[in-house]
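Hi V.,

Quick status before I head out on leave. The structure for the redesign project is tokenized and pasted below; the design run finished overnight.
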């Protein structure tokens, strides 16, 4: 029996999410794997009626409440938990609050690292790029509690998390896998501007896929490996990552070359000839929009940001401008129940708030 804490959420949100749960519940088969998913909450202490603010944390709590109303097996956050635009101690406090909410009951969770989660947006404002987190902050605040969960995911050295549910394996990739060094008091990379996976992480992913057996695999990450145009969505190794997924679908054996860069280069070897499943889809956030497209047969599905993006704010995406998102209304937030139905080989994404009510795809 799962332990559920009492969760206080805003009255309008409770009414809206109750209606959503009543609509979704009959559509979730008992054999389906159901995941409560949000991404890009961009939580911060500074309040704004038109843009990011402390409502990022409220959206996490509201996801928590919704997960208790539906037959959900996992809670997932796909990164950019915090905006990373405030002094270090304030961002760290916000990050720890979010982590505490995920740890508050027995429902297992997975959290991906986003490109804002090391506070580099704040560091960019400073001449010496001061204020970035050391790797221990995210590792101890997020990755360590993920590893310690009873019945939780396996988490690799490079931050890949994965778990199995009957005939489905879920793999959450770390698209902020950036080696960190301090040079003259300044960090070698601006994580906010450096989406990447290392060759070592690609080898970890290959090992996870090779061990999947006959399972189909749902890939999730903060950022997509490829964008609609067929160009890489990551600064380093987006294409090799995508090619590994293609090779898994085609049951190939061989190697993938990641170049000669001292931090991201190398060679990874794969043999998928003994596997029987396929890639269901690659779900990601980061771009603050909804979009579905295929690149070489791999289905990429982008999920909208939970963070408030008001229509008149200069950085608001066109997708969110069309929603005319307003604080203290259901359009303020966005989230999903992602349901994988192996019996019908169907992926369904039920959205609430500033999200499409239903997107569904056969795999």
């Amino acid at each position: 029996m799962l332990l559920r804490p009492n969760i206080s959420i805003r009255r309008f949100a409770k009414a809206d999410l109750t209606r959503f749960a009543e609509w979704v519940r009959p559509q979730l088969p008992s054999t389906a794997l159901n995941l409560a998913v949000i991404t890009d909450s961009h939580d911060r202490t500074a309040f704004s009626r038109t843009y990011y603010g402390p409502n990022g944390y409220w959206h996490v709590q509201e996801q928590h409440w919704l997960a208790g109303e539906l037959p959900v097996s996992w809670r997932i956050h796909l990164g950019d938990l915090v905006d990373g635009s405030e002094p270090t101690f304030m961002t760290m406090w916000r990050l720890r609050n979010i982590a505490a909410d995920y740890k508050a009951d027995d429902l297992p969770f997975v959290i991906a690292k986003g490109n804002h989660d090391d506070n580099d947006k704040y560091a960019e404002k400073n001449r010496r790029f001061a204020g970035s987190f050391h790797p221990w902050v995210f590792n101890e605040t997020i990755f360590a509690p993920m590893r310690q969960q009873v019945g939780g995911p396996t988490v690799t050295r490079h931050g890949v998390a994965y778990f199995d549910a009957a005939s489905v394996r879920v793999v959450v990739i770390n698209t902020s896998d950036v080696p960190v060094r301090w040079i003259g008091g300044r960090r070698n990379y601006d994580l906010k501007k450096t989406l990447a996976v290392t060759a070592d992480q690609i080898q970890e992913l290959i090992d996870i896929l090779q061990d999947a057996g006959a399972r189909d695999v749902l890939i999730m990450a903060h950022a997509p490996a490829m964008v609609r145009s067929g160009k890489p969505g990551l600064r380093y190794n987006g294409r090799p990552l995508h090619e590994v997924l293609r090779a898994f679908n085609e049951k190939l054996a061989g190697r993938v070359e990641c170049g000669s860069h001292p931090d991201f280069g190398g060679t990874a070897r794969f043999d998928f000839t003994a596997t029987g499943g396929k890639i269901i889809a690659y779900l990601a956030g980061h771009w603050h929009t909804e979009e579905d497209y295929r690149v070489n047969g791999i289905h990429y599905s982008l999920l909208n940001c939970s963070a408030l993006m008001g229509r008149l704010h200069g950085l608001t995406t066109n997708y969110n401008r069309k929603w005319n998102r307003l604080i203290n209304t259901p359009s303020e937030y966005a989230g999903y129940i992602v349901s994988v139905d192996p019996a019908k080989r169907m992926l369904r994404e039920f959205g609430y708030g500033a999200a499409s009510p239903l997107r569904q795809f056969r795999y």
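Above is the designed sequence. The mean pLDDT is 96.

G. will cover questions while I'm gone.

Best,
W.
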